[in-house]
Amino acid sequence: MHQGIRNMEDYFKLPIVLRAKELEEELRTGATKPFKKIIKAHSEDCHALGQKPITFLRQVLILVTYPELMKDPRFPEDAKERARVILAGCNNGSIGSYSENSGIETIRRHCAEFIEHRDGIHSDWQNITLSPGTSGGIRNILQLLAWKLNGKDPGVMIPKPSFPLYDACLQELNMHSVPYFLNEKKNWGVDLKELNKSFDDSTSTCTLRAIIVNNPGNPTGHVFTLQNIQEIIKFAYNRSLIILADESQQGNVYDGSRFHSVKRVMIEMGPPYCDIELASFMSVSKGYIGESGVRGGYVEVVNMDPDVYQMYVKSLVCPSSLGQAAVHCLVDAPKEGEASYRGFLMEKNEILLSFKEKAKLCSEIMNSINGITCNPVQGAVYAFPRITMPAKALNAAKYENQLPDVFYTFQLLEKTGICVIPGSTFGQKPGTWYFRTTILPLEEEFGEMLKGFREFHTKFLTMYS
Amino acid sequence: MHQGIRNMEDYFKLPIVLRAKELEEELRTGATKPFKKIIKAHSEDCHALGQKPITFLRQVLILVTYPELMKDPRFPEDAKERARVILAGCNNGSIGSYSENSGIETIRRHCAEFIEHRDGIHSDWQNITLSPGTSGGIRNILQLLAWKLNGKDPGVMIPKPSFPLYDACLQELNMHSVPYFLNEKKNWGVDLKELNKSFDDSTSTCTLRAIIVNNPGNPTGHVFTLQNIQEIIKFAYNRSLIILADESQQGNVYDGSRFHSVKRVMIEMGPPYCDIELASFMSVSKGYIGESGVRGGYVEVVNMDPDVYQMYVKSLVCPSSLGQAAVHCLVDAPKEGEASYRGFLMEKNEILLSFKEKAKLCSEIMNSINGITCNPVQGAVYAFPRITMPAKALNAAKYENQLPDVFYTFQLLEKTGICVIPGSTFGQKPGTWYFRTTILPLEEEFGEMLKGFREFHTKFLTMYS
């Protein structure tokens, strides 16, 4: 067996998630439990948790799939116009034909306009490639770096805590994963000292090629400050690292925070920083769109050696045309004056406002509970509360042969039906314990969940103190 | 740079294809040429060449994307029933949610039924995984084998001539590609002697892990006989190779030939052959469906070590749900008595009948031309005619610093606008020259093309003899 794949953690088969599935099945077949349903606060799957699809996007998808519907007056003109633009970019006007490996040109051009509008800085459409989503996009770039340098294995710096798919991808490619810890006390920001230490500690085992940055962040719900981004850029420049910026949740920012794209910041910093190699990833799986199933995203690559970029484009497989069409809807959404504008804005704002309210509510409630502390949820759709575990609970966990955070989340699940992910899945500093909850459950359920959580935690403390 | 990727040939950037694009642009901007348009006989993109999508499939896609259309009486009940089945398999009933890595269970179950019906032999749905198409599927399996064994690099036997994406995939994974030549005199069948020679010659450079079999075949248009398949199975057993069977064109078989799946043949052969490890690949990109853009396919894996199979499933990324829905339409097509049946059958048969007629016409015309010989097109959508090159033409090619087949196909393109791919792209025995044409251009254009080809070849012979 390929050792890298053997080592890969199976994120979808986490014991806590498997147990939640079992419990759901037990409930379905009539078992009596202290709860009536499983609250899937572990899942990042927006639509699975009840988020509604954006009507405009779905209309464009069906119009490109079944062009006869163009004649149907119930579909708005702007959706039809987008469909015509997309189909004009397809070979022979069919969404069923292959696109170029890098994606449909007209969609790539619209991605560049979208980025330009976001940053106020030029974006070259030829630097944009369409991807089957962020994890696929990151894999395609990492693969370019998966070769020995100076006789040593290649390595990549990844944040901790972070989404385990980065690790899985590095394992698959037989690359070293070199963690750098985010600083909880600075709203999960980066510390230059930590970055340097992490780099220096790894030099004997591997040659570092890149640093992965996740902003807004999973599982921590942070949004990096401008200063944070500047520090990362300086560090990457000093250490000759490529920045891989997972910015797929850039549309979800709350709490007065602002999203700063790595691209904009480095260009504004001027030479020598504006010449750093960067790949930034965006997708339609997250945010107000939440279309994980259609598999669509884009990658903007800047400052890559043209020869290497050509190799990169060559190594791509053309992504789903329908996923590409969904990306088009993200980057060319209805504009003021267009037929769908009002309805689109209402749907979008309803989702984003609900995220915002749940984000605020979540950290407020968490911080009001004895023994739980939680940074504000500034972006993305996650909270990462810290649990102060009483000594008796630590002993009980040891007795069960479980890590304390795993013990805690299993207790929570068995007592309340609430499924969250133990912090150790994402990486946490030794001796600290967390869990990740999403803010995706719909409002009513989310309220219930916070209430259930508070009750559980109070009883947990009583039991183990 | 990753050496494997550097070595990958860029199939989409073949000089002949780039030149065809240039010529198309020149025509568009008013240049005078000896032809009015480019005939894209190089392309495998069915819809790009005018093949119509299957209405039933597109209806199912729009119904799952926009369930409100379920109420629309213009869409038939069987399409709605398929859409309901698919959505019932999606988390929370939305095509926008993630599926399991291995695909939506209900679709996997229907794939197994489809295979059972094809072979008359049990197929376990848990052995089926859904893929983003054949090339992605093959890559996922090859990756499992991409590690050194007995201190030697891993290698895979691949047919020559063959589709260059197998080579590209092996290069990407840093695996050795060990060619075995198909026998033109036996309708591009396999020779046991050649298989053994190819295996034995490679043992000093790599450890062979698998053999890729392509049936019906690209670029040769062959369909293997039962005896051929049996020989491959015996060979794979004797040499402990896994068989990777690209059977994605199994639906396109003409000329009285019959498709024999490797799975059926090995099971029917009984022990020890029925225990061979096999992965078979199917997709919706080819055949009467031709939906290359939606990126959907399935893989059936049998006899794989359960531990390795688990790793394989773990390494998958969930493919596009819409691609999966398209696979559902392939494996659960309208049945007799259902509302869409008649219309579906008419569309399907029209496409397949046209393929059949063009297949026959193509080899007939080719063989009637002096200096061209061509095996019957038994399956898939390709002919691979052999050109006997006059000595003067060989000299002219040398003078142009081109391989003779490249010289020939460039001449053909410049004089007639017909774009075909030189045989050297696929691999050919030294000193023999071929080109690949598809039979995808629509009938009228295809007729024109054969006529234009005959005229060109006659002039070519006159000029160089």
TrEMBL record, chains A, B:
List cofactor names only. pyridoxal 5'-phosphate
What subcellular locations does the record give? Cytoplasm
Which ranges does the record mark as transmembrane?
none
- Pfam family name, one: Aminotran_1_2
Q: Quote the catalytic activity from the record.
A: L-alanine + 2-oxoglutarate = pyruvate + L-glutamate
Provide this UniProt record's keywords sorted from A to Z. Acetylation, Aminotransferase, Cytoplasm, Phosphoprotein, Pyridoxal phosphate, Transferase
**Molecular function in Gene Ontology:** L-alanine:2-oxoglutarate aminotransferase activity
In terms of superkingdom, the source organism counts as: Eukaryota
- Relate the protein's function as given in its record: Catalyzes the reversible transamination between alanine and 2-oxoglutarate to form pyruvate and glutamate. Participates in cellular nitrogen metabolism and also in liver gluconeogenesis starting with precursors transported from skeletal muscles.
Q: In which pathway does it act?
A: Amino-acid degradation; L-alanine degradation via transaminase pathway; pyruvate from L-alanine: step 1/1
**Protein name, UniProt field:** Alanine aminotransferase 1
The family database entries (Gene3D superfamilies) matched by this protein are listed as: 1.10.287.1970, Aspartate Aminotransferase, domain 1 (3.90.1150.10), Type I PLP-dependent aspartate aminotransferase-like (Major domain) (3.40.640.10)
